[in-house]
Amino acid sequence: ETALPAFEAARLLNPHTPEIDYALARLEASQGNAEAARTYANQAVAKKSNYTGAILFLAQLSLDEGKLKDAIQSVLSALVFEQQNSNLLYQLGVLYLADKDYPNATLAFEAAIRVTPEFANAQFFLGQAYAYQERYEDALALFEVLAQENPDNEVVKNALTALSEGKNPFTGIEAPQGE
Description:
Mean pLDDT: 92
Distance between the termini: 29 Å
Number of helices: 10
Strand content: under 5%
Number of strands: 0
Shape: elongated
Radius of gyration: 20 Å
C-alpha cells in the first residue's frame, strides 16, 4: 500500500524515467490490476521505445488475458531492438507454436539456434514444429542429436521411435502457451 504513493512521488520527480513506470506496472500486476499495469507499461515504452523489459511485460499481460496474437506482436517489437537475442527468438517460436503457425515457429526456432547452436529447448521445439509440418526427416535428425545429448530422456526416445516410423509424436499434445 505504501509503495504506490512512493513510486508516484518518484515519478513526479523523474517524469522522463521509464523505469519508474515499469516498476509501477509490475506493482499493479502483482496486485491483480492488469489494466493499470498495462497503462504504466505502455507509458514506460512511450518514454523509451526500446525498453525490452516493458515490452515483454506487455507480452506477458497479453498472454495472461489470452491474447496470443498481441503477445506475438509484443515479442516482435522487442526483436526490432534485439535481433540476435536467442531467448526472444525462442519465445517468439513458442508463441507461434501455440498459435499453430508452424512455418513462423520454424523460422523463429531456426534463428534462435543460429544465434545459440546449443539451445536444446529451441532444438526440441523446432523438431516439434517440423513434425507438425510433416517434415519428419528434419525432425528425426534433430531428435537424434538431442538423444545423443540426453540419452535417458524418455520424451526424446519416444519422439525418435515415432518419427522413425513416419509418425508425428506430438499429435494430440497441446502446444506450450509461452514461458
